[in-house]
C-alpha cells in the first residue's frame, strides 16, 4: 500500500511534539519535508525529511500529497490556499482561519481542485472530554442543566528575550486567546449539545503588559441548559476543567488532559500507558442521594485523527471533522469579536 507523502509547514512546539512524530511513526504516512525558517532542528530530528526554509519551495514537490499547516494563526488562510492551489490536501491547525469568509473560500477551492481539508480539532480525542461525553450519553447525571468548561493557565508576560514563542504575545490579528482555545472549547460543547439559541461573552486583557486579549468567557443558552466556556492566561487558582450539573448528580474534574504532557516527555502514542490518566486525577460524580463515585477517565489518543486522515485519503472514508463545523466556530468567534472589538477590553 502506498504511503501518504506529507510535508509540514512550521516546526514550533505543536509540530515538534505532535505532528512530526505522528507522521514519522504512522505506517500510512511518510514525512517528506519540513519547513523551518530559522535553525535546523527539524533536520537534526528528522534527517530523512527535506528541510525547507520557504514553504513555496516545498509545495513544488509534486510527490507530496498532504501539507500540514502549523504556522502562526494569521498565516493559516494564505498557506492553506497556496497548498490547495498546488494540488495538495491540507491539514490545518486550529483555528482553521480567522474569518468565516476565508474558510468558505477555501472550502470552495478544495471542492474545485478535488482535495480534502482537515481541521485539527484534536481535543475531540481528549480523554476527559470523551469521559464527559460518555457520562452525558449514558444519562448518568440525568438531564443536564449546566455545563462549565474551563481552561485556566498562569502564563505571565515575560520579557521578549525570555519568550520561547514571541509571536504568541505579538499584536497580530487572531493572536488572542479566543482564537487559541476558543475553537477547542466551542467544538467540544457543540459536539455534545449542538447550536445554542443565544450566545454572549466577554474578552479581556488581564495580565500586566499583555498586547492580546488573554481571557474570555462565553455563555451559550439552550432551552433548559446553560453552557459556560472560560479560559485565561492569568489564572492563579486551580479551577475544575469540567463541572457538569445534572438533575441526578454533578461531575467535577480537575487537571488537564494527559496526552500533551506525555508527548512533550517523548512518549509514543503506541506505548501501553499513552493517554491513560492516573486514578488520583479521575473526576468524581456526586449524586443527589449523597453517593460519590470516582469515574475512570477514558483513554484518549490523538493518533486516531491521523488514522482518520489516512482512511479518508486511502479508502474514501468521511473526515472526523467536517470543514463546515469549523465555520460554526468562526461565526461564533466573529460575533464575540464584533461585540467587544478585536483587542478585547
Automatic annotation (TrEMBL):
InterPro entries: Gfo/Idh/MocA-like_OxRdtase_N, Gfo/Idh/MocA_oxidoreduct, GFO_IDH_MocA-like_dom, NAD(P)-bd_dom_sf. Signal peptide: none annotated. Residues 129-251 form the GFO/IDH/MocA-like oxidoreductase domain. Keywords: Oxidoreductase. The keyword Lipoprotein does not apply. Gene3D superfamilies: Dihydrodipicolinate Reductase, domain 2, NAD(P)-binding Rossmann-like Domain. This is Gfo/Idh/MocA family oxidoreductase. It comes from Anaerotalea alkaliphila. The lineage of its organism: Bacteria, Bacillati, Bacillota, Clostridia, Eubacteriales.
